[in-house]
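Issue 218. Parser rejects a valid record. Input:
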Amino acid sequence: MASATIRGAWFAALSTTALTCIATPACAQESIDQGVETTNPNEIIVSARRRSETLQDTPIAITAVNTAMLENKAAVNIGDLQGAAPGLLITQQNSGAQAANISIRGLTYADIEKSQTPTVGVVVDGVTIGTNTGQLQDAFDIAQIEVLRGPQGTLFGANTIGGVINITRTKPTMEPGVKAEFTYGRWNTWAAKAIANYGDGETWGVKAWYFHNETDGFYHNATRDTSDGWSKGDSYGASVLFQPTGSGFDGQFTIENVVQKFNPVVSNLTNSSELFCGLIPAEECNRNNTTDLYTTFGEAAVSTYHAPDATLQMNYDAGAVKLTSITGWRHSREAQTQDFDGSSVDLYYADRRQHYTQWSQELRAAGNLFDGFDYVVGGYYFHSKYDLTQYTRFFGFDSSVPADEFDSNPQFVNGKTTSYAFFGDFNWAFADKWRLSFGGRWSHDNKKLTNAFEQSGLIGSGDANFTKFTPKIGIDYRPNSDTMLYASWSRGYRSGGFSPRAATAETASTPFQPETVDAYEVGAKLSLFDRMLDINLAGYVSDYKNMQQNLTVPGGPTGNQTITGNVPGGAIIKGIELDGSLRVTPEFRITASGAYMKSHFRNFITDGVLGTDIVPFDYSANRLIYAPKFTMSLNADYEVPTSFGKIVATAGWRHISPYDEQISAASLTPVTDGSGNVTQVIVNGNDPRVRTTTQDLVDSSLTFNFDLGDTEAYFRVFGRNLTNEKTTTHAFTVAGLFSFGMALEPRTYGATIGIRY
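Output the parser choked on:
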């Protein structure tokens, strides 16, 4: 009945044509103040194709979200965008600092190991973040976020087969000014944030900021009778902008540091089918994956994270051509302990210490070759290295012994990645109202990984090269200024590599192979009623080949090991999407999005263990992970002018149908031959503990804006997840031993007070 109601609401919404893009014409003027270029208050300017063009003139599926929307939602980080753009999921997992599981159109890779690269790229001021760790960016100092759906390998790199979240932070205004706010909410959560600008108003400006976030956490630890899941973090930095008048040159240098300390808590999902259930108290076993998630039993754990970074972007407009250079450096240092079994008995406790450094350099040239033909061409270099030392207290039964004392044979992993690429992207208006878009990227990746134990010595090492050319081609037709129809084909590529958790010489030295996605898309973008109503529609088919998946296979000291392997048959993903906005009156705005997706594996067969035998396991009936069948959002903003300023009321609803979070086994069906020998095992879907519930998330806020001469003050009250949905954001089963999960933030509320001038 519930699903039928949702479908009815979906089709009713479609029939009203009130579904258009998240970024609205009414918000365009807000972007001017935040440093995002715009030419008309009824147009949103995006840089999705490394050009400045209007949202409605960009022939790809893209959603833009600006500062006003983030502030009205009381967004904490980009995870609050989950469900707001078609087919977009952003969930947090606390196995790594600022770690995000991001999925677009069912394409994701939920792994925080530094040797593994994301399928969805997060790009901050032109610099790609090379790992899942660090992707969950703060939402306070953001001018605009663009969510690009589908492979974006031509312009944004090899590991963006699912899409890109392109984040533009505010530039120095070059004028004296301050923006500061203080927020307090449930769970003793508070944040204090400030940005200060200064400059000469013409040629130079400097921006400095400091953010602090802190919370006691929304879990309760029954063993220690205390709050669990606490965290506190600081982010600070400065940015200098220099643009000599009349020179055609501008340069911006930014340096910052992120410092976090938090409690990486997990909830116990172990059941009677797993070994650990017989070793822990009965009340800690066979718990549900909804309301029980918020009571924990594990011992204290802590993670510390230091992540400085620097970016230098330079542009030179020579008239016929514009040259751009973007240099990026990021470094992180992490030390994290974690009670992975989540019980009061000391069974599996890890101490992970790691370092990661990346350098990147991009050079681009853009211009018009002749009237009706424009281009972007360039080159890209990326290098990263990391090391991991992991101490494990396995069946220690004594939490007073530190893991680095218990484990005299810790694991060491060292890895390096070196990549370079050359790319080109071209638009040719070859006929009246018709335009051809085409391009490609040639990428080369070298991956190295060494896996060893301190006493046991080398497990194995690998060194492999991967090279791929990824083309794209599209065509669009514009019968009038308010209509665009387009079709495209693009190929996405994600490099191969080596398995950091491999436990045998063979698996440690055998690379997993690259994966590719061939994406076919058709779409329409309509602007109606003097651009007060925008309707964007896209339909797509993604042919996912050689998909990379984490697999549990025989081998290693414990009998099983987790490696990264390829699914030769891959998967097929199909879907339709709508998003957009309707300006009902100058004060009343409705925005909405929706996506329907259907996906399935093809020939997903890998080796597994049945008793003492190794036989083929067929996972073809399992669901893809982080691939909900249906998502929808509906938001309304109402602005009321007052004698003291204005009041803005915002309410939003996000619907996300159930989705799985791990490739696992609900049950097994052996297939035998005439002699009774097992020839294959059919896996009957994923374990239900790693499946979320249906989520209907309701958020709202009420903001009072006060005009005080040259200063604007504001007071906001807000609520998130007002329906108090309770489910997992990440869940995992571990080789028949134990299972754990992490919980969605329950109902929360708070207030913010701030000023800007």
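Fixed in the parser; the record now loads. The chain is about 5% helix and 55% strand.
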